Amino acid sequence: MKRFSGKTVYKGIQIGPVFVLKGRESQVKRSRITDAEAEIGRVKHAVKKAQEQLQGLYDKAVKEVGEASAAIFEVHQMMLEDEDYLEAIHNMIRTEMVNAEYAAAVTGDNFSEMFANMDDDYMKARAADIKDISRRLVSNLEGNEDAEYYSDDPMIIVADDLSPSETVQMDKEKILAFVTVHGSANSHTAILARMMNIPALIGVPLDLNEIHTGMYAVVDGFRGEVIFDPDEETCAEAKERIAQEQEKLQLLQELKGKENITPDGRRINIYANIGSVGDVGYVLENDAGGIGLFRSEFLYLGRDQLPGEEEQFQAYKQVAQMMAGKKVIIRTLDIGADKQVDYFNLGREDNPAMGYRAIRICLTQQDIFRTQLRALFRAAYFGNLSVMYPMIISVEEVQAIYNIVDQVKAGLERDGLPYRIPEQGIMIETPAAVMISDDLAQLVDFFSIGTNDLTQYTLAIDRQNDKLDAFYNPHHKAILRMIQMVVENAHKAGKWVGICGELGADLQMTEQFVRMGVDELSVAPSMVLKVRKAVREMKGSDEQQ
Ligand code: PEP
Ligand code: MG
Questions:
Q1: I need a surface site. Which of 123, 252, 411, 413 has the fewest CB within 10 A?
Q2: Residues in contact with 512: Cβ distance below 8 Å, sequence separation at least 6, in sequence order
Q3: Ligand 1 atom at minimum distance from 449 CA
Q4: C-alpha to C-alpha distances, 120 to 117, 126, 307, 341, 527, nearest whole angstrom
C-alpha cells in the first residue's frame, strides 16, 4: 500500500483500476548509434504499432462519434505511409547516425513547419497532423505505448500533467478520477475535472515508473490523498464513504426545483459553466437556471482545423434549444495561454498568459471572429442566447467589437439568414477592466467577473504555476474590493453582474457575494445545488456586516 498526498481539485472519492498516461512530455534526446539498419528496423516496428493504434482509435471513434469525425484517424494512417516522410527519417538515421526517436522528432518538426507555411488552408491544417503522428512514433519508440488513453472500462487516470486538449478528448464516462504530479488548481484541466464531476488530485509527488496500469487505487479528494494497492480495510472504508457521499448527493437532489432565495428574501441566479454541447446534460441534471459561461474555445480544441460556421451554428443552436428558453451565455473564443491549438500556429511566447490570447486574437484574425459571430447570431434566433467577450482591457476594444458586429449583421442581412443580435456582455478579468468598469458599464449589457484570470493578473501569479499555489489567494482583499467596485459600477448603470470564475463556487464566499449584490453565480454543474443550499441557509443579517 502506497499513500501520497496532493491538492484537491474536486472533492469526491473513488476506487478502481489505474491507467498511467505517460511519456507525452518527454524531451527527445539525440544520441549516436552504430547500426543504422537496426535503428530503421525500430522505426518500421513503431510505424506498424502506430497503424494498429490508429485503427483502434478509428474503430472506437466510428462507434462513438460517427464516420465523419473518425476520418481523421484514417488521414493519420495515410500520412504514416507517406514515402517522403518515412524516407526523410531513414535518411537522417543513415547520414547522421542518430537515434530513431531523434530522427522522427526532427523530421516531424520539419514537415510540420513546411505544411504550416503553405498557402492552401487544407495543407496548412496538416501541420498539426504531422506533429501528432510524429509524437505517436516517438512515444512508441520510447516504449510508452500507454501514451494514449482508450479503455473500455472506467479507470483512474494518473499522469505527469494533462493539457486541456487531452482532457477534453477523453470519454468522461470512462474516467473515475484524475491524479497528476503537476498542474495547478486554477488550470483549465482542473476546471474540466470539476465540470465532469470527477474527483481530482494534483501536485501528487509520484514516481510514474513505480505506478502501473492495472494497479488498484483509492482517490480521496476529501482528504487530498491517493492510495495505491490499498489493503482490504482501506478498500472497505472507501466503499463505505462512497456510499455515504452518494447519500449526501441524494439529499441535495431535494433542492431541485427550489428557488435560490435567502431566508431574508434575496434572490440570486445560479447558472452553470460548460465547455461542450455534451455538458448540457449535467446542467439540466443539476437544475441550473441557465448557462452562465459556455467556454466556446473547447469546440476548437482537440481537432486539427477550425470549426466552420455551420458546425458552430449547429452546436450553439442545439445548446440554446436544449435549454428551452433559459439563458445561455456563450463566451467567444478564448484561445491562447494554456489553451493551445496547434493549427492556430500561435508561436512560442515568453509570457503566454500575458500574451496573444482571447479577444486579442479575435481582433487581429477577424475572419475567425466573424465566422464565430455569424454562427452565434444565427443561433440566437433560436433561443435565449447572450454573447460575452473575454479579456477586455479597454473601451476601444469594445467599440472595435461593435464595429465588427455591425459588419457581421450587415452580412447576415445580405445573405437573408434569420438572426438576432443578442444581449452582449464582457468578462471582467483584468484589473484594467475593473478600474474602468464605470465606462464599460455604459457600453455593455452585463458583466461577468472571471476571477481566475482576475486573480492571476491582480496578484501577478501565473494560475498555471504550481509553485505559486501557496501564494494564490483568491480571497485577497484586493480581489474582493474589485468585485465590490464592479458590482457598484454595473448597478449604477442599471446592468447586471455575475461571477463565472471558480471563486463563484466557493461556498465560504456565497453569503458575501449575495450581500455584495452579485446578481448571478455561474459554477460547475456539480456545484449548483451546493451553492443553492448555501444561499438558502444563509445565516448572517445585514446588521452583522
Ligand atoms: C476566468 O478567468 O475566471 C474565467 C472564467 O475564464 P477562464 O477560466 O476560462 O480563463
Ligand atoms: Mg479567463
A1: 413
A2: 480
A3: 3
A4: 9, 10, 17, 19, 46
